[in-house]
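Q: Structure tokens for this one, please.
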Amino acid sequence: MFKGGSVTVTSNGKPVTIHLVSCGAVAVKTRFRDARFSGLAAMADFILDKKFTELLPIWVMVIEHPEGVFVIDAGEITEVNNKSYFASSGFVAKWFDTTQFKFSINREEEIDQQLQALGITADKVKAVVLTHLHFDHTDGIKYFPSTPIKVSTAEWQKPFGDLPKLYPSWFRPTLVEMSEQYEAFEKAHYVTEAKDIILIETPGHTYHHCSVLLKMDGLHIMFAADICYTQQQLLQNRFAGNNTSNLTAKKTYDTVNSFAQSHPLVFLPAHDVNSAERLKQLILLK
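A: Here is the predicted structure, written as tokens:
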């Protein structure tokens, strides 16, 4: 289990406690994480790759906010350890997801147990916000049957690589329109009435991938989901092998880097081993 991190900051003078918890871990092909090519060439390159990365965290953000508890993404579940888990999604999906990834997750790492460890029960969660619809970010929604689960309308209508057969039968997300703008981010949705938790569109990994931006007193914190695997990729313009478009991803990189030049920003990708430490120490993207 990866050790998470927590920090308490303020928004409009009121305390906000932010946690990163790792709901399992995943190893991917090395060329999946660090691509040499783009498009179909990148896919062929990582499929033929024989090497896997080390285990990487699957971070989920939990925000204790004056308006309630918000959970960003839902992490993985132990069922993924079963070889038959992907069978319902068809032969190709089963082959791909059992040969290109290696998962490690114990029951105590699932999101309901992580919340209990924080003294939070699932019924106290005001909303779950999904950045995109890949299963390692959505499988944990099984623990929130009575909680609003928010997804960008555009991500829901044009997903990339999702496996809807894995969704709970009751899953009917609350679709949100990205009709606002926040600074350089042209498509945004305010999650809180205080407008300090903001869903922003950051495409590249999927067509309408989103991140969550926290506007706190004196700084911003971004749960970047799968914009990139590590902060270094962002800084060095290196890309993962499964992007819908590296050109689109590059535009997202440029927007984030430009934003960080004028706004103190803590940048937290969902699979970066250093994200929890950067959150605890509030280490800024530079």
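A few notes: The chain has one domain: 5-281. The longest helix spans residues 246-262.
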